[in-house]
Specification:
This protein is 37% helix and 22% strand. By secondary structure, it is an alpha+beta fold. Strands 3-2-1-4-5 form a five-stranded antiparallel beta sheet. Strands 7-6-8 form a three-stranded antiparallel beta sheet.
Length: 246
Amino acid sequence: MEWQDEGIVLGVRRHGETSVIAEIMTQQRGRHLGLVRGGRSRRMQPVLQPGNSVSLVWRARLDQHLGIYQIEPTQLRAARLMETAMAVYGVQAMAALLRLLPERDPHPHLYETLGIILENLHHPASAGELFIRFELAMLEDLGFGLDLNQCAATGTTERLRFVSPKTGRAVSHEAGLPWADKMLALPAFLERGSNLSADPESLADAFRLTGYFLQRHVYEPRGLDAPDTRSGFVQACLKALAATTQ
């Protein structure tokens, strides 16, 4: 069997003395593993760094086999991504999220979003907002999508300010105010049609929102802890954003 695709490197692990097993988020086939012969060579090591875009050919005798990758670089981002803590943590945090998905399960929209975020990881507001939308898309694909488009109590689509921690549905300011201390805040920049950008406070609220539902629906049922790379990205992003708004 053989196929060709585009992909973004998520990570590698050593295999034998000279080879590696590469984990790549492909455009059409989802997160996919493959053996790269000579992957530890001087020529291939810079290519197989997390965040780099590659073109690849995968070959195997049977579809269920690990298979062998032939890889060529198309965009080498890794050196630039290593310049800031926010970018380093961001790449690792997104890779950890994608590992929650079944291997070889196609998610082309996540692949496209991953590429966009990688191009914006040096811009705190953009990186933070895009990362939140990536986590919301992950929750959706894992079967735990949030309904942030209308109030669960009244059906209105205006002045949505809260999210119910029980249902994951938005609640308007008026309907949710009596229980505000028990609700999660819905940042204004996540409202449909909003042209607002995130500030440190609203972005922190957004991280708490997605973090809560990832913990409740994904990590706890699987007996996992939230990855440290996410908290590292959150702290670095909020710190960088606060510095730009002072």
